[in-house]
Model the fold of this input.
Amino acid sequence: MRFPHLLALCLPAFFTALPASATAPEDIAGSRPNIVVIYMDDMAYADIGPFGAQGYSTPNLERMASEGRKFTDFSVSSAVCSASRSALLTGCYHRRLGLSGALGPKAKIGLAPSETTFAEVCRSAGYRTACHGKWHLGHHPKFLPTNQGFDQFYGIPYSNDMWPLHPDTIRRQQKDPHDPGNWPPLPIIEAVAGQPPRIVNDNVQPADQEQMTVELTRRSVEFIEDQSSDKPFLLYLPHPMVHVPLYVSERFRGKSGAGLFGDVMMEIDWSVGQILSAIESIDQQKNTLVIFTSDNGPWLSYGNHAGSAGPLREGKGTQWEGGVREPTVMWWPDTIPAGTTCDTFCSTIDVLPTIVELTGGEAPEQKIDGHSILDLMLNVPGAKSPHESFVGYYGGGQLQTIRNERFKLVFPHAYRTLGDRTAGKDGMPDGYAMTKSGLELYDLDADVSETTNVIEAHPEIVKQLQAAAEVYRQQLGDRLQKIKGSEIRGPGKLAEDEPQLTWKGSY
Done:
């Protein structure tokens, strides 16, 4: 059954009279284009120019939008790192994979090797593949990108704040200089498929983080421009920025005039420009799809070191729109219609099935939750959201929200908020307060800020969404109602006799 308010159209950016794409999905299905997925960390809805950023410029992302297509209702599976990344790579709700939250240095679990990533889809279609950046799906060898379909990996195993200079540690050491802190040294890992991973830096310092965006960009450009093979390529570039602590190279320090956050965003925009230029340098711009999006919304407690969700409610760590709706731009000259906007709901879980359709690669054998959005990318007339319903799990398996194209039903749950508190400043956060929602319904078409509960006006919609939620509860569980779920596959687990990745000071 399709919900009555599931809207159908993707609207162009300026006037509805603008023509749809001349490219039909069947014309490019199996065409094996190059694919680049740029995945930001903690970047908010209004942090880039095409979505209203103020105080600094992002000309390369503006270019992507003017030559490509904005997606204004593009959601992640969860408002936190590991869970969100697992969903992007596999096309599954993170709950189905048995992952939640953000994996830390002590974790002995990760993305199960039995899951199929979009890198494995591409490799099955004859692609060369690379991951450069933040992985955060398990740091032991069996979980690393080179065992998940990537030919090469260079980057950090988890978030860049999981290191000895975490703000909490700094605060504690101000009181007690001998306090050892909570985190081991942060490493940089390099790996090639079929070979053991190497620790190339066992103790990342601030100077290393300052060069991180530059180095990841350099390696990505080299990968794109590598002419030793005629295979198409997949590049996954999960930037550690703009997750705190913020770092920027000397070239961009102070350049924005909008503080460190603006400097970092300008460097990220530069990185996007370098990627586009590399694609053009090998004359592959008409054969390359570039997707730019983020894993979750802003870490609001960090104040001026966090971004802006614009009109959206709350941020990272909540299933309100500010936590899960991400600024997304897709670029593929002469294929994706230039200067258009898609307002139809879709998600990161739709990336993998779209890649399956484009590459002709092997689809996952296990059940996934996403659907191809190629028709939405191409602005095909009458294209609809592939999701009659979409669930938001958080809090270790709490089913907190369910939505259709227009309405979002919020179930009673506790969530964090700054409320009336003053946000942190200059890299030091303030604390959140906890509050509770009731059973609430929001009309996202009329009220994207989720300010007005309209549950009394739409009893039939509530009934429909509650019925759909009950199906998800039986499949994926619900910690709020103590339901386990019958279709949770579970994470990968490290056996005692399996290799572990260690470095000086690691757990």
The longest helix spans residues 259-281. The chain has two domains: 26-388, 391-493. The radius of gyration is 22 Å. The longest strand covers residues 34-40.
